[in-house]
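Anyone have tokens for Xanthine dehydrogenase YagT iron-sulfur-binding subunit? Sequence:
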Amino acid sequence: EATVSVHLRLNGIPVTIEVSPNAILLDVLREQLGLTGTKKGCDHGQCGACTVHLDGRAINACLRLAVMCEGQAITTIEGLANEGLAAGDALHPVQQAFLDHDAFQCGYCSPGQIMSAVALLEDRRVAGDIGTVREAMSGNLCRCGAYQNILAAIQDARL
Ligand code: FES
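Reply: yep, here.
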């Protein structure tokens, strides 16, 4: 099967990958690139577990063909803490806020929740009122029902 070269900036590093034309970004991240922090829940755009940043915007990686990302910047949960920080060991402020607020139970939805929350908080046009946060996070489901603590963490996080 013919493959296509795709050039990405992945977690701040330029990479070139060879993918099949119909490869889904989520599968490429997890299976080809070993970035298993991005989770597969529903695999059809319903749960938000696969949320990554594409040029700074939160998207569902299960709905995106890898070839559609040519030339774009992708950030996954693995790259979040290193963005803009000289030392790579510190957590991103939103990761820290999730820890401080126990904003998870099983943790499966957490990477997607955190990626959506960071995109929301980085959008300076968005007011931090609870209604806005709820609306912005409505695509990220938590089957454990940790929503109260997730919302508290997002409201408390300071970028
Ligand atoms: Fe992509 Fe559920 S796995 S939205």
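The first helix runs from residue 25 to 32.
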